[in-house]
Write the structure tokens for this entry.
Amino acid sequence: MAHPAGHLFIIDGDLTKLHCDAILIPVDVELSCTATWHDILGFSGRVDDATVPDGWGSRARSFLYRADKAGPDIWLGDIGRHGAPDDWYLTGLVDFIERASSAPPRIRDTPRLRLAVNVAGSGAGGSAGDKGHLFDTIVPALESAAARLHVDVVLVCWGDQQYAAAQRVRGRGSAGLVTPADEREQSLETAAASLAQFARRSELVLFIGAGVSMGAGLSSWQGLLDALLSKVDVEVADVDRFRQLDVRDQGLLLRRHFSSPERYHAVFEDVLATGRYSLGHGLLSSLRTREAVTTNYDDLYELASRTANRTCAVLPYEPVLNQDRWLLKLHGSLERPDDMVLTRDDYLGLQARAGALFGVLQAMLMTRHMLFVGYSLTDDTFHRVMHEVRQARRGVPGKVGTALVLFDDPLLTELWGDDLEIISIAPRPGGQPTEADIASAARGLDLFLDRVGLLAADVTSFLLDPTYRSMLDDEERELSEVLTKAAVLVGRGCGPIADLLRPQFGRLGAVEASDVQGRRT
């Protein structure tokens, strides 16, 4: 899959919690903002400590408000106006991209500046009554600006309808018409289409490894251990020899070099502390898969999933019933430090202590298609799980999952090729991959996941919402009119048939049906 100089990514998420270089916060010309942005600004209402540039509100539609070493730079944009035409919002978004694009990338391990915006004008803005035209206006222009300025732009939608609308516009445009240039691109396009099909059929389950969290600025396993080593209370006598040990043995020794379990857990939490998820987390959570598994301790996938009032239960700590999706944490969670698996003893006792969790994992491997992202496939416990799955399948044809890896690895393919489809993003460079090689391949992985998201997007969520009517073709409008009348009847009805149909119409964007359902529940 080609690596464009600049690209428009689309996710469904929370702009204030995305790990990126800069974000644009909407204000009006008087610098007033809504309570939506309270958490990231620290206040809501008027921004009193900003120095506006010359031409603010006319020639200058955006400016840098706060540079933040720990998070994205915060820009303010004059795009918070009611009743303005779509082109006015678009001009403000592009003004931000043009002005912010001159800064160098600040995110570790990414070769492109990453700028994030929300769907300006879709809330209380002037396009609230015709969101379809708004998306038709801004999506192509954002794609063009990203390509022209050689930056990556992330359009952060809020909820199913915005995400579906943005993907529909992109799918109808140049992004929907891809002609693979070579064999690798053809292979990646075929793999993306296959995974999208699994996702559309609700047969895809995610396995999220540490590589995805590294996109949010967290360290690798060895990097985590090195960070803990730098904070021990009792100095390790031979650091060079220590680093030669197996990482599980390093973990055991490190625990002994802190003054107390509480001190160890506090440092551990501090090392992994981040309030922003990676673009990879956002792309994966936007796939709408109900089930996911991780060996990560952090809460970044949950953070990416719990937007627009969606819920995500964490197993084994929370009940799954009445949740939108759930995440199985095999190695414990920062919130449950006693359950975290880090040392050799932890690993040896894991199967007996958490055998039921591995039973769930095995069931998913046998009944779903599992997508491994950011996971090395070297974990001993996982090898045991796969061995038992092979024994149970007894030669059943087909592969149980797909593993995405950064570089070609013929030996990995030879080891796992009977069970997993191994998809490599880039050719392996001569010698050890450099940081630049890894950064380029990691961006290629994000591009691949973005392509899967485009192909898997469910564009039916706004079918019955009148504010998206302009996006429908003639056949869809006719169908929408018929179903809207039915939705009104269902919304007013009672009994088992109405109860069965009401949530279905709600998922198609029927305001009447979903409102009545909400009042009754």
The CA atoms of residues 314 and 327 lie 5 Å apart. The chain has a mean pLDDT of 87. The two ends are 46 Å apart (CA to CA).
